[in-house]
Amino acid sequence: MAFLRLGWTEIVHCWRSVMEKDKLILGFAGKMGSGKGAATQIVKDAYPGTPSFRFSDALREFYSWLNVFVRDHGLGLPKEVRTKDLQDLSTELRRLFGQDVLERGIMERVRKVDSQSPIVIVDGIRRPSDIDALKKNPRFRLIYIHLDERVRWQRHRARNEKSGDAELSFEQFQSLGDVEAEREIGSLRPLADLLVHNKGGILELPDLFLPQLKQWL
Question: Residue 43 is part of a domain; what is its CATH number?
Fold first, then answer.
């Protein structure tokens, strides 16, 4: 968890390293089930070798480490992490280490990228504070994906990415979207370089942002 110790000197060095590679840093934001993962895969298919990083990567890594730690002390956490677990963990880590703690984790990963693709994807941005440093990079672009809440719920259940997702009622899904870790996502919408209304399904999604992506490159 070296990123927890990164200071501003290291942060500036991280972004200088990225900018020297002249890669487009493409951020995806949107509420649960809006299609961020699908959009990420579309970019990877269009530009093979494109690396992607999610803000939840560091949370999952920390959760796994914490599970090993407490198990060594005779305790234990659920083996399969739930959405609510990651939300609570995000809130607590930000309280302890600063609002930019996950951005520091992302930056450390991006800095180490070595690929031929002209793009690096950052997925799962949840707060304006997540992109404070990213916005200072002239090669950063943010795409916000919007989708009707009930459709997002249906897709979230079908994806069943985390334990219990497939059994979520609509009311439970709404409750997950109302926790501190999710409430600020909507405030990213006016900061986006492109707003995508993902109402046509996976087959129409590429046409909604790939043409603009080519212009950014």
Answer: 3.40.50.300
